[in-house]
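HOLO CASE FILE
Compound: magnesium ion
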Amino acid sequence: MQKFSTVIVSNRLPVKVEKKDGKLNYIQSDGGLPTALASLDATDRVWIGWPGIANDDLTDEDRADITKELESRGCYPVFLSNDDVQLFYEGYANDTLWPLFHYFQSYMINRDEYWRSYSSVNRAYRDATTKFAKPDARIWIHDYHLMLLPGMVRAKLPQSVIGYFHHIPFPSYEVFRLLPERKELLEGLLGADLIGFHIYDYARHFLSSCLRLLGLTDDHGSVHVDGRMVSVDSFPISIDYGRFVSMRESPDAIAQHESLLETYQGQKIIFSEDRLDYSKGIPERLEGYRRFLEDNPDYLGQVVLIMVVSPSRTGVETYQQLQLQIEQLVSRINGEFGTAEWMPIVYQFQTLTLEEIVPMFMAADAMLVTPRRDGMNLVAKEYVVSKGDIPGVLILSEMAGAIDELPEALAVNPNDTLAIARALRQSFTMSKKEQIERLHAMQKRIKDHPVKRWGTDFMSELEKVHERQTEEAILDLKNEQLELLVDRFNHAKERVIMLDYDGTLQTFKSSTAPSAAAPSATLRKLIASLAGLPHTRLCIISGRSKDALDSWFGDTDAQLIAEHGAWTKRHGEWHKRNIDFEPAREAIQPILDDYTSRTPGSTIEHKDFASVWHYRNVPVDLALVRAYNLRHELRSVVDSDIAVHSGNKIIEVKPSSVTKQVAVEAILGEYDADFVLAAGDDYTDEGMFEAAPHDAYTIKVGLGETAASYRVAGVASMLKVLQRIVEADARK
Ligand SMILES: [Mg+2]
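Model generated. Tokens follow.
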């Protein structure tokens, strides 16, 4: 079986298979995605997807024929049954995700069998992908049909580099969270290394959902997941500029354009073209036109709206109702304003070819593109390019992704029928010169970012993300380095191991009560074993209180250092540093009380030498604002010998002379160690790394900048390192 270096996965293949009179026909698509990806090197590439025909209609022989024919076109089919098409495609993808992601939540249908089918079809795509991808392949997954697939592929091919592009809007958190399966979908997407959207607003919504639903913090457009960086960015898709230029210049187009001008002589032509869908705002657009006719009687008989709607999902009731609503509106307006000589609206419910549409673009004095929500909208760009030097005005919805790139269009709120009416009037009164200037500015922008660049831009960004990940991975503690570490440990005469607790030996818990963070029996046993090794000092250096550490590890040989070094336990006795924190505590107490009472979910923890404000359970946006202001207020009331620190969902106020660095220096001064290991996860541990001798093993747990010489992905990996040391010693 041949394996490929580049794998494209989308719900539909660029080739559609039909069966007529027992004979298979193959129809090559010239849609946006195949054009966009045509520029990517095709020699070592396979495209995986559904060929558009249900499995139930095929014999074994058909399937073999299809597979063979598609293989010759660089494709591999995923066969879907009629049930899959109904429940996965028509169901979860188009009746659950599509309406919600376009903010039509009342149209969203939630059914268990939709979700089950969506999961199982995503698994079928996973199996096909892993079958053809080399272990380190570049895999580019497309769109909302396959949101679980990045995570599924990651689990099977951890070395692969995965990109995902979302071709429809990603809604704000407030809307996205209505989905029962919201977490599973986010986790699925986060299997990718790069997640792309058309515009940055969608990326922002995705990042905010990751933060609120999974607690993952946005770090300049990327999030850290299980020790891996996932990058999120915008890549606006475009059209094939050159193709529209040659179409508008073809003799056929020029002839049809002239014939249209002849037919509608003396009338301003308004053009509108969409697929039948509630997201397109067609009834609102008709209302806007009606309003225009009502408010501008001087234009009666002088204007025509040519509205082309191409049939889509006509078997679905919502779509049937929409079709009926549009037809009724058209008849009403034609009846209300039309005369024997003049019909205000020419309505066509049919799919036209681009060759038929381009001349209409050319003839249109105004183009109404007013979707209520649209991921990008390419019709707007097609109109602009088809115009060439012919005057015309694009009226574009603020809710279309394309608005960011086409600011010279007349922007309208698609729900505001008065605004649509006014924009129509404005386009008819705008000077030809201004119309051309606006068109040319937009044409230049589209020409500079043609669709072929979109594909290569995304793939080159995917490589860059992978390079950044590789750079971060340089610090990763590799197996052979771990073996060397164990070897040095075994041969050392005096050994010192210094470990932070939270985030290093124990994962963060949602409850801020100290008891929630108590070590498991396994962890206590591990610490006891390490501390019990001969010629080994094991220190736990934590910001926790001495009572907490004592209750967890008091019965082991571990040396305990509490509150970042304010307390040290030696020979069974706790010793404290000679510092008075009480005046500072009194000064800050009223501020902490005030913030805690105003910020539901926050708590105050009193340690002997510190006060800590915990905000792990405060809603993120509120937490950001309150934490920022609280830090500022605290700093204004304490002296310079008191430090206000931000930690992992905490703000801690403590004497600035109490640091892990000072504690570590004291320990290293006491013992003449020839093996030192220090491990920690946050900024307080950086001091520990800096104080360690240069040949020490300093280990950062998790991602982020560090002075440590090695890195492990998380708590589980850290525990494995310690376990390995104990086992090696046990074998001696
Ligand atoms: Mg920590």
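CASE NOTES: Residues 500, 502-504, 680-682 surround magnesium ion (CB under 6 Å). The mean pLDDT is 94.
CLOSED: yes
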